[in-house]
User: What shape does this take?
Amino acid sequence: MRIVITLGGSVIIRDHDPQLFQDYAEVLKSINEEHDLFVVVGGGKTARDYIGIARGIGASEALCDDVGIDVTRLNARLLCMALSTFAYPRIPENFHQALEFATSGRIVVMGGTEPAHSTDAVGSILAEFVGADLLINATSVDGLYDKDPKKHSDAELFQEVTPSQMMGCLAGNEVKAGTYEFLDHTAIQIIKRSGIKTVILNGENPENIKKALKERIGTLIIPED
Assistant: This one.
């Protein structure tokens, strides 16, 4: 099975903890024993901090995106270091390179690709491009809720959701460099048209990634009727 994992910066770089990179590396290596694996790493607060500086200087949103992309690629390099020889040693800058590097049989780890594409968008496009069987979105909460569970104690988790329902949740939201959405419009549109099986789960425990391969966890995005 070919799997793409989007690993949010809010998870992997949250506390700048080297052990978390090591823990993720161990889980990813075990998955790679039986599956082809691609990982897209986000920028998290580190990227938002740098973007804030760039924006304060007066940089355009496109240039702010470039700054964020650089941070995601740096985070990807750190994960590659933790994976050692199990990861392809170069960070792909586009989807063609990612597919090319995958012929090595090693785990392919990448960050962003171009302005206006979030980590989730990159992961969704990559999943479609390489013909992935499964897309896993590892974030800082247990799945998709009807409202922010960190602000509302009565927030309810969706066990299943369609792409159209997710688009409805995002309607009217403003998108700028470094902002966080639960799978932005581009990501959802790609998932909708490709029908890729997608799971949103809590990535703060790396073992949840392995669980998603064998059992129901988080929120499942189901195809449209």
The beta strands are 2-7, 36-41, 108-110, 134-139, 160-161, 197-202, 219-221. The mean pLDDT is 90. The two ends are 25 Å apart (CA to CA).
